[in-house]
Structure formats: C-alpha cells, structure tokens
Amino acid sequence: xxxxxxxxxxPLVQDTLLVLRHRDTGAELFRRMATRISVLLAAEALRDxxxxxxxxxxxxxxxxxxxxxxxxxxxxxxxxxxxxxxxxLELLPTARVGHIGLQRDEFTAVASQYYSKLPKDLERSHVLxxxxxxxxxxxxxxxxxxxxxAGARDxxxxxxxxxxxxxxxxEREHPDVRIYTPVIDRGLNDRKFIVPGLGDFGDRxxxxx
Length: 209
Ligand code: PRP
Ligand code: URA
Prior knowledge:
By secondary structure, this protein is α/β, with parallel strands linked by helices. The protein has helices at 11-21, 27-45, 82-91, 138-149, 164-173, 201-206, and strands at 6-7, 51-58, 61-68, 72-78, 96-97, 99-104, 111-117, 126-130, 133-134, 154-158, 161-162, 178-181, 187-188, 194-195. The radius of gyration is 17 Å and the shape is globular. The structure holds 1-O-pyrophosphono-5-O-phosphono-alpha-D-ribofuranose and uracil.
C-alpha cells in the first residue's frame, strides 16, 4: 500500500504559496518565496530524522539536548529544483548533494535525462529529492529510478505544487516514497501544466519566460 502524501498546511507555507502562484510576482520575489517555502517544507519532511542525546556547557552549567545523527543527501532535479537547494542547505549545511538533470519535452511532456551525479553509499542515507512541480510525475519517477539504482532506500520528495496525476504515478511506481507538498491542485491541462498551478517554475525562477 502507498505511503500517504503529507500535506503541509502550515499557514506560513500556504501564504507563501499564494505569492508564488500570483502571476504578477517577479523573479526576485519568486526566488525569495521559493527559498522561504522550501525551508518550511524541508523542516516538515525531516521531522523524524534520528538524533542522539548530547549535552553542551551553557554559561550556567550543562544542558542536555539532542544532536542530529543522520546522513542526509539532497538531490535537486535540475533546473527548477535548484531554487529549493539553498534553503535545504541552510538547514543542513553538511548534507551531501546529488544532481539529476531532467527536461520535459515541450510537446509530449515526456522527461529525458541529461545529467546525473549522485553521492556514493546511499543505502543508509535519508535522501530528499527536491523538485517544485509534480505534474505528470514522469520526471519524479525518472529521478526515483536513478536514486534506486544508486542504492537509495529512504527517499522523500519535496514539491511545491502537486497534481493528482503525478501523485498517482509516484504512488504506483514507488509506493514507499513519501511526498511532502503544500497542495494537490485540480489537475493538468492539455499541455500537461498544473492548473491552477503557478506556470513554469523554472522559467519564473530564472526569468526565461
Ligand atoms: C519541470 C519541473 C519538474 C517537471 C514536472 O521541469 O521542475 O521537473 O517539469 O513535470 P512532470 O511531472 O510532468 O515530469 P522542466 O522539465 O520544465 O525543466 P526545468 O526545471 O529545466 O524548467
Ligand atoms: N513544470 C512546471 O514548471 N509547471 C507545471 O505546471 C508543470 C511542469
């Protein structure tokens, strides 16, 4: 059975999403909002990372606490996923980073791979694949196949807008992968864009409209 999708309903996430969606939001604000929402989403997706007890000396004595004890690998799907990377690295500055390059054909919406460079020894890592748009799910499934082949077991996907079609495909092909998203939109239009969505994320992020 498929792992349930995690809908991140935090008001700050939802408010930021609205700014990203607005057609009048320009590249500068779009980038800032992409970073803001990614920090919030990543914090949610990494909520169950393992920790170990630790103590630190405060000016007043010893304080017990928890130290992160997890190897996290972040994998942006190029190019739009790069807009989420700095946010995740702000939370996890020592995380290893893999890159997967996928490009949807403008007419068929079929994703083809043009790049892949993944860290070694993914078997025990917590892998966070970041790609803002989950539309048909073709890119996500292609990325997940590469990660699986590289040995990844614990994989989470972080996206900013998801379509039911994409979720269904990921659930069918990789039922153990958890998807974190603020929203599941109505569906896809005849060009396989998410509606209402926010348009082409990569183009809005990089000003290549
Ligand atoms: C976008 C997006 C996803 C993909 C989603 O990338 O960033 O990777 O489309 O669509 P899918 O679920 O139907 O595969 P795109 O291929 O447009 O490339 P870009 O990131 O370089 O803009
Ligand atoms: N890629 C995007 O950037 N937007 C969509 O709506 C679908 C794929």
